[in-house]
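Researcher: I'd like a candidate sequence for this fold, 418 residues long. If you have to choose between options at a position, lean toward the conservative one.
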């Protein structure tokens, strides 16, 4: 095993961590004896990240020793923009009012400074907040509530992690890898690894689009940002057995919207959002099928999610009260046919499920795994199974032709209802 650099240790999980003692004279000031920083799981990646982390630690200690806010500000500017920028900025700062810049805000002052060559990048100046607006306008976020909420949530998390200056004032080119890892570490304190991946993917898309649109020549600091524990595995969710699924259904009162929704989920294998956001026009009672498609309530997860799914006799019976007197554009389930309705619906169903099943890896989504197993056990071809469940296919041939006929899909689905 290679010898680890100074201040670096390898944890039992295999990840590397920067750990440095706080200088004795700062222990009382900072209220702690050590500073820590995550360095990743890859040895070479740790070596690349270490110099910047060491500089951050040194800057943190120097700032803690600084006697006034003016000194702290100049130290921070010297670290991020170079000595020349710090010398010029010193002329903007009042001696008697160190938090005030004589000609406007610190962001405006820094933008006017001739930065050192090492920090200079090519392209126009645009803040990260403005990049979110440009991306949102191009993608039509004003007409897509789900996208608008995702962008708003990601920008809010960035503000909490990096601060208003870096998000709203500094040019996007000056985001560093240290900013990216700090944002990732802040996310992982409150969300799962897979959720963190989704947030970071949104951020990468915003930055890449802005760089291309504005002709900015700079590297995206969030590119190839590794997140330990991300990715789906077979053990993340366990399927419900048929007996377990029926036992949960028995606890939900009949003639209620939740009873109808659960029955649909159980017999179709659809996602909660696909069912809770149905409109009356998505159901064809005469043909006994359900069209899962984008509608006025919700979009779909992927293009392959668009599909026709056969309906069982008990689903048609359960849906009766929810379809009475409704127009095509009306939500089938009024309580959940709204933005965020799928989350509320899932939470309500989980209360019933937990009365019967305590295994944490078995959830409402496990009904989808159950349907996949049932299709396998009937000998259903994989391509037909993917069509019924709305899974994407990597086969080129799958993108040709009109797809499988309704009779074929019904025949295979009927075998799972027995």
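Model: Candidate sequence:
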């Amino acid at each position: 095993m290679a010898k680890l650099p100074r201040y670096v240790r390898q944890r039992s999980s295999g990840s590397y961590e920067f750990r440095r003692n706080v200088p004795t004279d700062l222990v009382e000031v900072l209220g702690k004896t050590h500073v820590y920083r995550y360095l990743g799981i890859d040895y070479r990646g740790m070596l690349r990240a270490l110099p910047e982390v060491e500089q951050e630690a040194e800057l943190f200690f120097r700032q803690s020793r600084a006697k006034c806010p003016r000194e702290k500000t100049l130290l921070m500017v010297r670290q991020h923009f170079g000595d020349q920028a710090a010398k010029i900025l010193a002329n903007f700062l009042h001696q008697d009012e160190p938090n005030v810049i004589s000609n406007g805000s610190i962001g405006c002052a820094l933008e006017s400074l001739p930065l050192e060559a090492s920090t200079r990048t090519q392209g126009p100046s645009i803040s990260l907040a403005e990049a979110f607006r440009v991306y949102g306008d191009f993608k039509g976020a004003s007409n897509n509530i789900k996208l608008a909420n995702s962008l708003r949530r990601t920008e809010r998390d960035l503000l909490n992690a990096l601060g208003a200056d870096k998000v709203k004032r500094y040019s996007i080119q000056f985001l560093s890898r240290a900013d990216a890892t700090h944002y990732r570490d802040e996310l992982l304190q409150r969300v799962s690894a897979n959720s963190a991946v989704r947030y970071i993917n949104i951020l990468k898309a915003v930055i890449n689009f802005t760089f291309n649109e504005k002709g900015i020549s700079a590297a995206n600091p969030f590119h190839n940002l590794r997140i330990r524990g991300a990715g789906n595995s077979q053990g993340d969710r366990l399927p419900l057995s048929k007996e377990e699924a029926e036992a949960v259904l028995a606890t939900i009162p009949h003639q209620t919207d939740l009873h109808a929704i659960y029955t649909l989920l159980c017999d179709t294998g659809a996602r909660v959002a696909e069912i809770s956001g149905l409109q009356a026009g998505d159901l064809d009672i005469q043909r006994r099928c359900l069209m899962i498609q984008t509608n006025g309530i919700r979009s779909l997860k992927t293009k392959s999610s668009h599909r026709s799914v056969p309906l069982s006799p008990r689903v048609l019976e359960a849906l009766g009260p929810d379809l009475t007197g409704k127009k095509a554009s009306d939500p089938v389930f009024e309580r959940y046919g709204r933005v965020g309705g799928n989350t509320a619906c899932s939470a309500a169903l989980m209360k019933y499920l937990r009365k019967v099943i305590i295994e944490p890896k078995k959830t409402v989504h496990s009904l989808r795994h159950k349907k996949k197993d049932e299709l396998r056990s009937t000998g259903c071809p994989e391509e037909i199974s993917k069509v019924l469940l709305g899974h994407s296919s990597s086969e080129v041939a799958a993108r040709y032709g009109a797809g499988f006929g309704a009779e074929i899909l019904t025949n295979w689905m009927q075998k799972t209802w027995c």
